């Protein structure tokens, strides 16, 4: 299940990134972030289109029907992007063009990233362990509680009362 979920996110990202690189092969500052940002948007649009074309009637098995077509599209766009990228002139970068980052700025950045990861983990645990809506909570509680069974003594007392003519 986890592998299918991972594939369901990576396949649109790959297809969309390949499509973006085929359309815009230039490599400027920030091109990786741009490719990933536009790639996920394009990829999800491509996945929606592939779902509409190939898996409209059976969306439960969309990865089986639309996944191969999206993979073929990603490979084709990757080849186009690679061929267009080869034709671009290579720029040489001087040694001193690296941005100097002060070391103390990495500590708050690392703390912020760790805090986001921790909060994400807590939110994921909360989502997976507890139902979201009140009616889901009622269903979960109702399914988990033991059924009310009459005790053996209550059944005996009822039978005895019937034998005595209705008195306990």
Which secondary structure elements does this structure contain, and how are they paired or packed?
Layout: H1 2-23, H2 31-54, H3 62-65, H4 67-86, H5 106-129, H6 134-144, H7 152-163
Helix pairs in contact: 1-2, 1-4
N-to-C order of helices and strands: HHHHHHH
Between the first and last Cα atoms, what is the distance in angstroms?
A: 59 Å
Count of helical regions: 7
3D shape: flat
Approximately how much helix is present in the residues?
55-70%
Query: Uncertain regions: pLDDT < 50 for 5+ in a row?
Result: none
Average pLDDT reading:
80
Please state the structural category. Answer: mainly alpha
Q: How many strand units?
A: 0
Strand content: under 5%
Radius of gyration, rounded? Answer: 30 Å
């Amino acid at each position: 299940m986890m592998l299918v979920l991972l594939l369901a996110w990576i396949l649109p990202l790959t297809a969309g990134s390949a499509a973006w690189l085929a359309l815009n092969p230039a490599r400027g500052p920030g091109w990786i972030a741009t490719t990933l940002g536009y790639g996920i948007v394009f990829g999800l649009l491509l996945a929606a289109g592939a779902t509409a074309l190939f898996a409209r009637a059976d969306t439960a098995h969309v990865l089986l029907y639309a996944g191969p077509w999206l993979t073929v599209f990603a490979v084709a766009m990757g080849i186009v992007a690679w061929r267009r990228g080869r034709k671009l002139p290579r720029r040489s970068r001087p040694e001193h063009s690296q941005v100097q980052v002060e070391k103390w700025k990495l500590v708050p950045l690392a703390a912020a990233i760790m805090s986001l990861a921790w909060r994400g983990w807590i939110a994921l645990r909360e989502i997976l362990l507890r139902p979201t809506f009140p009616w889901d909570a009622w269903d979960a509680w109702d399914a988990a509680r033991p059924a009310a069974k009459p005790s053996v003594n209550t059944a005996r007392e009822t039978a005895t009362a019937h034998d005595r003519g209705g008195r306990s």
